[in-house]
Amino acid sequence: MDVLRAANEREAQGHSVIHLEVGQPGTPAPAAVLDAARRALAADRIGYTDALGIAPLREAIAGHYRDRYGITTEPAEIVVTTGSSAAFQLAFLAAFEPGDRVALAAPGYPAYRNILSALGLEPVLIEVGENAHYQPNPELLAEAGDLAGLIVASPANPTGTMIGAAELARLAAYCRDRDIRLVSDEIYHGITYETAPQTARAFSLGDRSGPIVINSFSKYYSMTGWRLGWMVVPPDLARSVECLAQNFYISPPALSQLAALPVFGCRVELDGHVARYRANRDMLIATLREAGLSRFAPAEGAFYLYADVSALTQDSSAFCRQLLAETGVAVTPGRDFDPIHGDSWIRFSFAGSTADIEEACHRLSDWLPSAGQK
Ligand SMILES: Cc1ncc(COP(=O)(O)O)c(C=O)c1O
């Protein structure tokens, strides 16, 4: 956030800034969503909805599990939320008790551990380096002591790495055998470059206390500001989640729900964005390699490249400030994602336009070769 503030200040002073720090698509919502929003505004009262979300959207989400993963889910399991951010609060409050220890990867999305701490839960960081493909596995979990929960994200932020289907099955079985609640953040599903991801819902095996799946319309569906997400909740938590949602939010945003109804039919437009992310990713990797940076987490999905800058700095925050001041390229220091090793990593977001990534690449290839000597 400090980098974002500095970038915005620089921009306000009239300097050109290329935003590779923000984790959101550069595109608006799909055309059919915008049309549906206009129609809803003209015809609907836009009042509160059912706390679990409007029935046609929950049915559409259930249909998405059938079409995309070949899995039958009941609309009763689907809870529409105010972005996945609200879903985390609902999930953690419903599944855990104060003081519970919940494991998560470092590096990882910082809000997980901040929300856990705010709710009186103990985040247990699992160091996941290159050898672990930057993802938790049963062997690493076995060293973490007693756990009430495990949060995974595949593809992950900031690394873009994925957990393969067999490995996810192994993690789900490990958790089931030890009463560890698996929370699977699937927000970057749809934005993948090598293999299609599996959903943790595939491994619930009719279990009453199976995994909690969290997803969102923010990333693949290009709807960040509409604040809409969903969760697939196991039977033992369904009622708690509903009561919490009613009390916290009354309902997710009505206009966004009505607008999102056609979104699962927008794959051609949305896959076009993914093709652009792929081109951006390839251009960025080639530029960084040529400029002497060659160690990255494998960006198999999402729109981030997590790069090791230990050859250039041991203070990635200062490095990002200097990069912004001297080139106008804003990137995120790794410390946000990893309090252990983040000082020697930075995250590039390549979710913007290809023209922006091209310009950033020009500036980076001029600047990086000299950065080590500064
Ligand atoms: C891994 C991950 N999960 C969840 C979120 C939150 O997204 P939203 O609340 O918009 O669904 C983000 C946002 O960057 C993210 O990177």
Describe this structure in words.
The protein is α/β, with parallel strands linked by helices and 374 residues long. Helices cover 41% and strands 14% of the residues. A seven-stranded mixed β-sheet has the order 2-8-7-6-5-3-4, with helices on both faces. The chain is globular and about 60 Å long. The site of pyridoxal-5'-phosphate has 13 residues, from α4. Pyridoxal-5'-phosphate is lined by residues 23, 83-85, 109, 153, 157, 185, 187, 216, 218, 224, 229.
Measured between the Cα atoms of the first and last residue, the distance is 25 Å
Q: Give me the Rg, rounded.
A: 21 Å
Which of globular, elongated, flat, extended, rod-shaped describes the shape?
A: globular
The succession of helices and strands, N to C, reads HEHHEHEHEHEHEEEHHHEHEEEH
Continuous helix count: 12
Bound molecules: pyridoxal-5'-phosphate
**Helix proportion range:** 40-55%
Count all strands and give the number.
Answer: 12
Mean pLDDT: 95
Please describe the biggest sheet, giving its number of strands, its sense, and whether it closes into a barrel. Answer: 7 strands, mixed
Low-confidence stretches: none
Q: Order of strands across the biggest sheet?
A: 2-8-7-6-5-3-4
Percent strand equals 5-15%
SS class = alpha/beta
